[in-house]
């Protein structure tokens, strides 16, 4: 268990999730408010953080096996409650879960319109309970936005369920693909922005208290503002 190796150097997983988490593909440099916030909290608690770029599905397995100490931006759901200790939230926002189709495809006007479509979903991502538990839908599971965007462009899927529209749009932009549209139907969703730690992690209480202090003092909002963002 990483928590037993050293209380001074904590393992943390990172992934490209603009605009809050950024991985520069040329230099592999990591940046973003979620990195800065947890690093500052760790420093004030006397710890350092060793980052690794890891796909989110593997990060969930790392949390389950105690193979990592911290994963930014873990959405709370019933299944993850069994093995994730949630720290935060540092913010809360209404973030609609969207469905994206090709511009030349049929509109999705209601949940029932999803029936019969090949829907791209991101491995390990929780969307909303009805959708997540609906085994009648044809879901095509892939690892990342890179593949989702290109599969829609190639007509290998009919729609994509999207939690982070900005990340998907950046992939469309990378290939100059403009032939997509947001469906009429969406799921309104209020989510907390949590860090995940393994269940019963000995430092979760200290981090939770420190992040709460940073939120109340305005420090979290200040860090977000450095990136031209607002902590909602």
Automatic annotation (TrEMBL):
SMART domains tied to this protein: PBPb
Pfam families: SBP_bac_3
SUPFAM superfamilies: Periplasmic binding protein-like II
Keywords associated with the record: Signal
Solute-binding protein family 3/N-terminal domain boundaries: 9-231
Matching Gene3D superfamilies: Periplasmic binding protein-like II (3.40.190.10)
Assigned protein family: Belongs to the bacterial solute-binding protein 3 family.
Stated name of the protein: ABC transporter substrate-binding protein
Protein's organism: Vibrio tritonius
